[in-house]
Design goal:
Rossmann fold, 11-stranded mixed beta sheet, two-stranded antiparallel ribbon, 419 residues, single chain, 13 helices, alpha/beta
Length: 419
């Protein structure tokens, strides 16, 4: 057995809780070798294009992608690289009638899609879905709707090892409801980040770090490094809101900023909010708040030790809430700002991603679906998280309260209130 193959989910429980090993450890050695380097993607045959659930808000959506370069720091994963570069996508309300001439945007760039497919992500069989052919509901480069003046902005971060597109169904919903949403790829952390010149940066540096941490017993330090990088990336994205492409900076209200994410993305949302007061409200979708490589250990993150004084929403999988999750309990007891803790009944960790929308289209049986997203109905999982995340940000960034977060609702019986 190779060192890489021995990196099991159980032995990396702390990283797995943050999502770090979800894709990096499932990539076979042959695929890793084929995906190494930064060259242009190869053409390859794949399965059918998938369909994402349509957003329900009143606005059409536009999107653009951009390369951001932070020249104030070397790349923390590749120190020989004299700057840190990120790929982001910006999703926004589009001007009415802007569909013609602006095709629906790809779910993933071809090079990133090839690398993602090679990992057989989260039990989607290799080649079952064509991630590059899958289209979103957003129009590429559509004009921005300027009728509403400046709009609140949200930063979205996916789980570690996952691409920035892995929460598109939720991101599109927020854009359709009048938000500008910036999604971030943390370079060298997921299997493929494609840049405008066609080059693709892979996750080799993180995979190497995982192997070394396993051998040296330094998993908490690696998780801390990963979190620190994500927080630094997030702060840089916040710095860049005044220079977004496509004229979007003219419609962004930098006084109304929120952040949300799944797994390690939710962790980054909480810790970034703790360190940077520009983030006024945040949502953590099933991310633990501790550096904990062993089931009986604990090493709380600063945000869990000290809490927050601004609004924050915790949404967890079945059986994980502030009464059972040690780090959430500590965060809850130390937070003085508004807070809620919701549980999606019958859910698992990946219920808070695009997997509920995509896995049923991949030709797998019901057992595989339940093993990955739980017994919750996939469509209801998408609807519930959309409703509660939108209700939260509408309340705290728009001053609109629909009452959904006050008490359990018959409209969403899948959602349980833990506080």
């Amino acid at each position: 057995m190779t060192a890489r193959a021995s990196l099991t989910r159980r032995s990396l429980v702390g990283l797995a809780a943050a999502g770090l090993v979800a894709t990096t450890l499932s990539l076979p050695a042959s695929a890793a070798a084929a995906g190494a380097g930064t060259g242009a993607p190869r053409a390859h045959a794949t399965g059918a294009a998938a369909h994402l659930p349509a957003p329900t808000g009143p606005y059409g959506i536009g999107t653009v992608s951009a390369r951001l370069v932070d020249r104030t720091r070397h790349d923390p994963w590749v120190p020989s690289q004299p700057f840190r570069e990120l790929m982001v996508s910006v999703w926004y309300p589009a001007a009415p009638g802007s569909g013609p001439g602006h095709p629906r945007a790809r779910y993933m760039a071809p090079g990133a899609a090839e690398r993602w497919d090679a990992t057989s992500p989260h039990s989607i069989p290799k080649g079952a879905l064509d991630f590059a052919a899958t289209r979103t509901h957003a129009r590429e480069g559509a004009p921005v709707d300027t009728r509403g003046g400046r709009r609140p902005v949200l930063v979205y971060a996916a789980g570690a090892g996952d691409p920035r597109t892995w929460g598109t169904s939720l991101v599109e919903e927020m854009a359709s409801r009048g938000y500008v949403v910036v999604t971030v790829d943390h370079t060298y952390e997921n299997p493929g980040v494609q840049f405008p010149d066609g080059s693709v940066k892979d996750d080799g540096p993180l995979r190497k770090a995982l192997e070394e941490a396993q051998q040296n017993g330094t998993m908490p330090e690696l998780l801390k490094k990963t979190l620190d990088i994500r927080v630094a990336d997030s702060k840089f994205v916040l710095d860049s809101l005044g220079s977004l492409p496509h004229g979007l900076s003219r419609v962004v209200d930098r006084r109304r900023v929120g952040m949300f994410g799944q797994s390690a993305g939710g962790i980054a949302a909480a810790e970034t909010m703790y360190e940077d007061r520009r983030v006024r409200a945040g949502v953590n979708l099933d991310g633990t708040l501790e550096f904990n490589p062993e089931p009986n250990g604990t090493n709380l993150m600063p945000v869990a030790e000290h809490g927050l004084d601004r609004p924050f929403l915790l949404m967890g999988r079945e059986g994980s809430d502030r009464t059972t999750e040690l780090s959430w309990r500590s965060f809850w007891s130390h937070s003085t700002g508004w807070k809620r803790n919701l549980t999606l009944r019958g859910s698992l960790h990946q219920s808070y991603t695009d997997l509920p929308a995509l896995l049923p289209q991949a030709g797998v049986d019901r057992k595989v679906i339940e093993e990955n997203i739980g017994t919750v109905d996939p469509a209801r999982a998408v609807a519930a998280q959309r409703a509660y995340v939108a209700s939260f940000f509408d309340h705290w960034l728009k001053g609109k309260d629909d009452g959904l977060l006050d008490a359990p609702s018959g409209r969403y019986p899948e959602v349980e209130f833990a506080g």
